[in-house]
């Protein structure tokens, strides 16, 4: 008999799966907390936009509260607990998940727009790899002939394209230096031998395991939800999903208001309450798949970075606000580092929510975020229907 869930139950399951139902640490954050975070979310999306804070730092803050961001870098890179790869877009993943992506590296194809250029530049690309082998780790500026940023390859230098292609196909691996600069080295000098020597998974095996991990991270989700987590094509995910159902790893459920069949992880937990409060990054795995975000939270969310300013509805870099387990508001944030201010460029309340309840909770989280970022205070511009109440709460 198929289990039926209310939307509120599905939300609580999802929040528990994503690590939003545990208490934030009251003391020092350490490696155990990052281990727990990764057990829930599985991977952290990377993004170059740094309007308020880089994307991969924010999910830890949302779940753990203030922590030293350099400590996460140390955990990821210097202690080799995570590696960079194409999981859900560019991501940081647990080191022992490296074999999951091996099939993608082995089958890597140049981006269509660059395919001809990469073929033409084969000798140059080989020379770049030789330089890394002899002198690495290297950035593009360390190359003998990195080229200029005015070429036909999306404005990137040929050296950067060569390094990215070698990273994409697994010849090189990446670490970071200083101001989030990607540094490239031979994979066997970045990935521990014990991981490199792990038995490679076939594409079928890897996709089945990625779907299993996605189901753990979702708690409950549709086929398209689960496939999106590691960016698996739906036709390829469908037979793997059937295998997981047959193995008893997943079970079919129905969720109130969802037209599609949903699938629940066999170990998914339905807590009695999920009262988490947190500012959530646009690149947080809780809200990656926007259709699911709308189904779970009745929260229509689109990132507007690439929308012309006059056509933006909410702002350039908008963070959803999770309060008492529901998405109740959104804020367009910018870190004005030169003046030590976390700037709320606009704040909007979701329909039917109480500004008197939401504003003080949001003000508290914004103040904590500002302190975490080393900023002196929060300032709210008078834009958006929550701005007035938020400004009062911040005074």
Provide a brief overview of the structure:
By secondary structure, the chain is an alpha+beta fold. Helix content is 39%, strand content 19%.
Question: What would your notes on this structure say?
Answer:
By secondary structure, this protein is α+β, with helices and mostly antiparallel strands. It contains 16 helices and 14 strands. The protein has helices spanning 7-17, 31-41, 58-64, 69-78, 102-106, 115-120, 122-135, 158-168, 187-190, 193-196, 203-218, 223-229, 234-246, 290-297, 355-372, 387-394, and strands spanning 3-5, 44-45, 82-87, 89-94, 172-177, 181-186, 220-222, 250-255, 262-265, 278-279, 318-323, 326-336, 341-349, 377-380. Strands 10-11-12-13-14 form a five-stranded mixed sheet. The chain has a four-stranded mixed sheet with strand order 1-8-9-7. The chain has a three-stranded antiparallel sheet with strand order 2-4-3. Strand 8 and strand 9 form a beta hairpin. Helix 11 packs across helix 12. The longest helix is centred in the C-terminal third of the chain and has 18 residues, at 355-372. It is globular and about 65 Å long.
- Cα distance spanning the termini: 55 Å
Structural class, by secondary structure, is alpha+beta
Major sheet attributes: 5 strands, mixed
Mean pLDDT: 93
Principal-axis shape equals globular
Fraction of residues in helix: 25-40%
What is the total tally of β strands? 14
Order of helices and strands: EHHEHHEEHHHHEEHHHEHHEEEHEEEHEH
What proportion strand?
A: 15-25%
Give, in spatial order, the strands making up the sheet with the most strands: 10-11-12-13-14
Radius of gyration: 22 Å
SS field, number of helical segments:
16
Low-confidence stretches: none
